[in-house]
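# nightly structure sweep
# worker-07 picked up a monomer target from the shared queue
# config: single-sequence mode, recycle default, output format = structure tokens
# input follows
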Amino acid sequence: MTLRVLAAMSGGVDSAVAAARAAEAGHDVTGVHLALSKNPQSYRTGARGCCTAEDSRDARRAADIIGIPFYVWDMAEEFDRDVVQDFVSEYAAGRTPNPCMRCNEKIKFAAVLDRAVALGFDAVCTGHHVRKIDGRLCRSVDEAKDQSYVLAVLTSEQISHAMFPLGDCTKSEVRAEADRRGLTVADKPDSHDICFIADGDTAGFLNDRLGNEPGPIVDESGEVLGSHSGAHAFTVGQRKGLNLGGATNRRYVLSIEPVNNTVRVGPRESLAVDEIIGERPVWSGCAPLAAPFACRVQLRAHGEVHECHAWQRGEELVIHLAEPATGVATGQAAVLYDGDTVLGSATIAGTGRVSQEAASASAL
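# output follows
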């Protein structure tokens, strides 16, 4: 069956090969590059980001080699509103956001997909390393490059209009294929870090927008141990950058309290949590879990996977971990898996410790 496919081409090797595979499969493919900044020079150059002027030129050259039409869509206003401003406001609220996940949700699979469907396209094709099996997201065969976590915010309807041609191969195989196809991006380094922070200085970026208001660093009893120049520069689990001088024991950030501009620190064992509460759950791989279900959860991109029981309670996702986890930050996503299959996700809104009785009850 021939589909009209819109291939999102970032200018990297993955999206170029994905577009080439879709075209080779006989689909009617059109390439599109998203212009995400009104001032491209403010974004990174080279391999430091994924939204650069060089990327736009690389995407156009790849489309020419593949032999497909190519356009640039201006999404700067949507990107600033839904990704950049969301990033700043989340840090201001003491949370730790994942801007790549928000970009996938709000830009690549909401704004772009909506526009594509309105223009008569059947699917949006991307170079994400993830598989789609029976309409559900599954981990890539390349575990090191798997991107199912950052796509777990997608709804089943969005997934039904998505095409992921690279989930069945490794990154080295993608590069080799790009070389065989004569794509000039075959050896282009992967993008990394946050594309809209030009110099990589996240704290400086946030200081420019939120100010650098000094505040106290306190221990669990409330004793002041030192001071900071902006609570938004910290995240739960952080150890470096506290500058506590003569402290003899290692201390970690336990919480950020934006209302009183306080950073609370303590020993590593105080970071341990075994209950996680998520908000805005999205169930793309199953119906909402009405009762505790044994599965696994990933709590940050490329992070450790934990055994757990999870279920939906009202509008919340409740997760009880089999063993405590540390460094779990609000604002990140909790993504549930059954084997390699994504069941659903939610934004972490709170954490805590549960009683032994509650933990045992959830396992029944």
